[in-house]
Amino acid sequence: MNAEVPVPKDRSKYIPVLVVIIVVLVAGYLLFGDYIQKQRTLHEVDSLWENASTLRGEGNYDQALQVYNSVFGIISSNEFPLEYGMNHYYRGVAYEEMASVDNVNASSNLQNSIYAYDSSLKFITKTEYPAEYARVQYSLGDAYLKLYAFQGRDENIDTSMGYYNEALDYYSIAVDPVYFASINNKLGNAWRKKGNSAGNPIYLQNALDAYDQSLRVFRNDTYPLEYAGVQNNLGNLYLEISEFNDKKNNINNAIIAFNDALDVYTIESRPVEYGTLQNNLGNAYFAMSEIENKESNVEMAVNAYHEALKVFTIGLFPQEHEGVIHNIARAYKSL
Asked: Would you say the pTM of this structure is higher than 0.90?
């Protein structure tokens, strides 16, 4: 019996399928490999940022800046635009923090900060990264407001307010109430500086409106420290408004605001803030002594000044100590 030889199967029709499978596998490997590499890079960037943040907290700003500069060596702006922009932003934060501890070089450090923030905005656009964009706007507002203190240029106040308002386009009370309140507090400070510089009570009223917006969020029962900070600002604002109208009522409002803040800032919990508030309260009572009840209000003023001296000793705070002593002498001289 003759055995039939089986006819070989034609496998050529499977070749295109195999090719497709191989291509898909290779492409998948390349894509997955690229994803893994990007994640490794991002992890490295996060680690460097954490290290730089620690160095900033320790006051090692030059080293922190070196770490931030090293980040630019491992990422490109095309592949990682957000991280590239945020690295510029963090450099700006470092320079701004340097300005707060080095008055001699504060102006140049603030200008470096502004340059870094502006550089970040080349990559962090309002359309693609609205939250980060608003964050940079907020920081630019802070930097320009601080720069005003050293340069005295009114245009820096206007620039600052422009950035704050731009940030508020994103940070509504619904989107982020804390940022909303914080920016309005800073905006109030800017309006106060503008009002005092121009001698314009309308600007001071704008400051009052901004502080009121801030207090919609910063309430005593939820954010006591922030609440106390705004109350201190309000107290100073009321004293400034009293120079223009309704003197007695505004001074009384200032006294109320300072006392509200002192419900939070105690000498044990916040000694520096406590001392500052007591000095401000003394100023308010002294201003009231020029209107009525001179002796009793001067006594209240001096009592507050002495409370401030419990913190502002000549050994620890010589400049503040001298200022409070001057206020006490002025109060007694008025009798």
From this structure: no
- Which residues in the chain land under pLDDT 70? 1-33, 35
SS3 track for the chain: CCCCCCCCCCCHHHHHHHHHHHHHHHHHHHHHHHHHHHHHHHHHHHHHHHHHHHHHHCCCHHHHHHHHHHHCCCCCCCCCHHHHHHHHHHHHHHHHHHHHHCCCCHHHHHHHHHHHHHHHCCCCCCCCCHHHHHHHHHHHHHHHHHHHHHHCCHHHHHHHHHHHHHHHCCCCCCCCHHHHHHHHHHHHHHHHHHHHHHCCHHHHHHHHHHHHHHCCCCCCCCCHHHHHHHHHHHHHHHHHHCCCCCHHHHHHHHHHHHHHHHCCCCCCCCHHHHHHHHHHHHHHHHHHHCCCCHHHHHHHHHHHHHHHHCCCCCCCCHHHHHHHHHHHHHHHHCC
